[in-house]
Amino acid sequence: MLGVRIPPGLPFIFEIMAKSKKKKKKKKSAAATQAATNQPQAVAVAETKVAKKRKAVDKPSVKERTTGTIDKISQFLREVRIELSKVTWPTRKDTIASTSVVLVIVFLIAVFLGIVDLGLSRLMRILLN
To answer: Is residue 98 included in any domain, yes or no?
Structure first.
């Protein structure tokens, strides 16, 4: 692979998708468990509240999440800087030469389209009069 390393993407979207999938699975499994065991509704509600409290304890704090995100962003920017140092930048002479070629071609195309437009507008005048 010639030593090219693609920097890791920012995981915001994938984390959101994973969380929503987990919620759906938990809802389905909770409903299936309640239906299978025929527990009274009050007991099921109490178990759900306990599960939510446990889930809140397991979550990393905002500071931990922010620190992890900042670390990932800084790693990404370091890798971008390294990759940009590997780029072969054109010289000033090459840049001026390619820019002048582009400007000449744009001018020639503009002249050509102007002539075609002028010819077509005169042709339309002749046909309409």
So the answer is: yes
In tens, the pLDDT along 70-100 reads 888 999 999 999 999 999 989 999 999 999 9
- Cα separations in angstroms, 61 against 50, 56, 65: 19, 10, 6
Contact 7, 80 (CB under 8 A): yes
Sign of the four-CA dihedral 115, 121, 124, 126: negative
Tokens coding 92: 């000033």
Domains held by the chain: number: 1
DSSP state of 8: P
Give a yes or no: residue 109 inside a domain. Answer: yes
What is the per-residue pLDDT across 48-73, written as a single tens digit (0 to 9) for each?
666 665 555 566 676 777 777 888 89
Both tokens assigned to 25? 């699975």
AA letter at 63: K
Produce one character per residue of 26-38: b if its CB has 16 or more CB atoms within 10 Å, e if not: eeeeeeeebeeee
